[in-house]
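Lecture 7 notes: from sequence to structure.
We start with the chain below.
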Amino acid sequence: MAAATLPTWSGRHEAARTTSGSTNDFEGGMASGGTSTADIMERVNARLKAQLGQDIFASWFQRMKLEAPGKGVCRITVPTAFLRSWIQSHYHELLTDIFREEVPGTLRVDIAVRSAVRGGGVTIRQPRVAGASEQETVQAVAGRSAVQAADGRAAPRAAAAPAARQMFDAAPAPAPTFGSPLDPRYVFDNLVEGASNRVALAAGRAIAENGPQSVRFNPLFIHAAVGLGKTHLLQAIANAAIRREDRPRVVYLTAEYFMWRFATAIRDNRALDLKETLRGIDILIIDDTQFLQGKSIQQEFCHLLNALIDSAKQVICAADRPAMELESLDPRVRSRLSNGITLQLAAPDYEMRRSIIRTRAAAMRAEDASFDMPDGVIDTIAQRVAGSGRDLEGAFNQIAFRHSLGQPLSADHLDDLLSQLTRANSERRVRIEDILKFVSRHYNVTRTDILSARRTRTIVRPRQIAMYLAKTMTPRSLPEIGRRFGGRDHTTVLHAVRKIEGERAKDDKLSEELDIIRRMIEE
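Predicted structure tokens for the same chain:
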């Protein structure tokens, strides 16, 4: 159930690096500084997480790579043009400041788009998805080339697919509908079922197996906190549906990829072609809907939802909270998503946590016969790690790693390890929704008023207090809090936090009010 970093691709291709200058620069930087690119990126990533928050980092920076620091230039690459554009316009100055501190002598930071497929006479280096067969890899190459040809920019490279088929000597297969790549490991067979996901899992199986007969689940909206298996379930639905005999046209997209495709299509005057392609599919699956931004893109998304649902085509969306709580989305989109079936994936209970660990242990034992995890250890982990499936995966990986080094954990060491892993989750996690609820109740205003653009004092004051509490009681970054408060800029949040901090130091009555609200939220 742990999230996997999936290979992504972009319509733009990075030129092959044929000169030796970059290599020499890199070697010079390594020789003089004695620090590898991995060490540099680890420090840069740590600082980005600290300043922006884990969610922002995972959305925009997790797939960023450092190519070659040297001669005053740090060159980083990202998998899509959309990511490059977003980082360039929103975080380039911050990145430059961090690299200047971590890599002395840095004058500028260049951001480029890397590509999985290289053309123009250069050998094709197509990475294989972990666990994918050769034919699946061929289909991935064919699907990417088809999309690039449809964009009108890389038609000559479409010959890469036949070449790849000849290389593998596999039978031609229909190219999959474009979209974000599917991980073949995410299937129903290895998705552990429990009380927290049983209903959502049944709905997903019905959609994947029954086809048009399952339109009563339309649209299906799934929400859950981070690490509870949303992506696994969505990709399992897609992987099962494309294997049906009727061969439905299935598109799985992340919100980020959807935005990039539409932005690129508008730029290239191919928006109508993209709309026709999307409206001709049978099953649309959108992951991380909370990141869908931009007024024009949201309007197009709303039109697409209406067209597919009215045509009895299946739509499945997922986010980290219910649709009506996605304040950054257009009200029409929220209404449409809330009008179908909404299901929540909750944190796994004790029995489900045991099943997850047993499944991982069995898979590990199939690879390494010497690996053994006694029932007592499984029970201890299931009792102590009461968070998400991703938390369980982290605990299991720690134990498996030590086993691979020939250092199995003793009972005392296991206790220390679990104490470290669970310390961060020992305190109750406060949600911004909780803060909004109690602040609006205390000041007799509505949640809608706080999130609105109204600037009367009776509204502004509670709004600033709610922003202050969100910053002090949650790990959310300023940009995240701004988005949750009606799409406001992070500078607005910063002003509110500083204003309430300054007034609290001088006003005992305000300080007492804040303490009362804080206690209500924590209880």
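Points to note: The two ends are 31 Å apart (CA to CA). The chain is about 55% helix and 5% strand.
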